[in-house]
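Complex 485.
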Amino acid sequence: MSLQNLLPFNTSHCFIDGEWRPSVSGGVLPLLNPSDGDILCEIAAGDADDINAAVRAASAALDSDWGRFTALERGRVLARTGALVSENLDLLSELEATDVGKPVTQARADVIALARYLEFYAGAADKVHGETLPYLDGYTVYTLREPHGVTGHIIPWNYPMQIIGRSVGAALTMGNACVLKPAEDACLTALMFAELARQAGLPAGALNVVPGTGERAGAALASHKEVQHISFTGSVKVGELIQSQAAGNVVPVTLELGGKSPQVVFEDADIEAALPFLVNAGIQNAGQTCSAASRILVQKTIYNELLNAMAEKYRGLRVGPAADDYEVGPLISASQKQRVESYLSQDDQLQLVASGVIVNKAPEGGNYVEPRLYACSDASHILAQQEIFGPVQVVIPFETEEQAVAIANGTEFGLVASVWTANGARQMRMAKQLRAGQVFINNYGAGGGVELPFGGVGKSGHGREKGFEALYGFSTLKTVAALHG
Ligand code: NAI
Ligand code: MG
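Predicted structure with magnesium ion bound:
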């Protein structure tokens, strides 16, 4: 059955001011299926005119119904949207799997995470508040948490639903009106999300979705003078551009730009427990995960043992179409495949220890890459330094705790890190010294944990999404000082 027949909206439309409509120019873009290279459907090629219309609708919503919603009412509409997301688990999983090329089980986990974000933020809506402050005699001083206004959300293709949950979910909780620019490579669940929010009773203009390219729709949103906050997840290069555009309008930005996250394994670790976390955090979503653990640092005394155990897992990895639900699916696009292969062509000095297998029935036109596990004795090697965004891990030996910290912190990035050790004092020392926005002790959560503030340091970006912390980022604080004598 054609995709369009499954959906209650036209895939080539934008969602603006509570309605589905074609882009002003009428332009469309093909949406490709990463599993076979075929065209799935057309999507709108939004540009500055559509972004303008979306921003106008968002501004108007703040002055009408949406702006008058109480915190309780905002929470309830988010809860209803979350319930509709759960009711549509099968459809949303199928859409995400098809569009992103993500194995169905992984896509289902993303739908469940989106519903959980909405549940969390729905419950938080009427529990985030200002404070009263002690001040001079005769004064009463208090703070108000207010929305920024119109917030712009430019999201990537790797986890559309999870990123909508953490970004749009938190922004709506605080009463902002959102303009969402999903990625041109995968945007069907973003569109479906807008439809579900509409059905749940979200007022017109509170959420607008304009698909299109980064260069046209994304840049128009990032530089728009009536947008008061920008949240971006994607490449460092585009993050830099967006921050400079936002600087021109003096608005805050949240940037989540990926990383080269390490898992550090000491000789006293429970290797059996660690093993699935070590491998899964590298190959989840074919390695196209901002918080992928692409570097595994292992104490020399257990290096060979652990490398062999990981190699065995790699040999069992099958790569194939998303619908067949193997461990690994295709990469999102031919250009991402090319990008990954160009990294892999620079693997001299590294030892290829094991690879996974592309299944025979994988269609020619799909963007398949064999997962690769490398032994790497040089932590400054390009494959140990740069974000590859493919199913590739390097395993690096270290001798002492100091060395482990130096290697772990020795990239431009700092998103997530983990330490595996039974030594409690070492756990605490490592957690303090690792340069990252999140540190896991004896576990690893690539993208997990709705409740847990998330974001980077260094080139991984700044600002925090997820958890309660995100609600502070998506609001601004007003101090009121009353002199009453
Ligand atoms: P990208 O940064 O170009 O795309 C992310 C989003 O930004 C998309 O919605 C895109 O349309 C938009 N965009 C692109 N150019 C823009 C511009 N000039 N102004 C405003 N918006 C713009 O990332 P791409 O090309 O898809 O992937 C390249 C690399 O970026 C990946 O290999 C990976 O290393 C990194 N990346 C990191 C992600 C993360 O989760 N942190 C997600 C996606 C990519
Ligand atoms: Mg790009």
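The mean pLDDT is 97.
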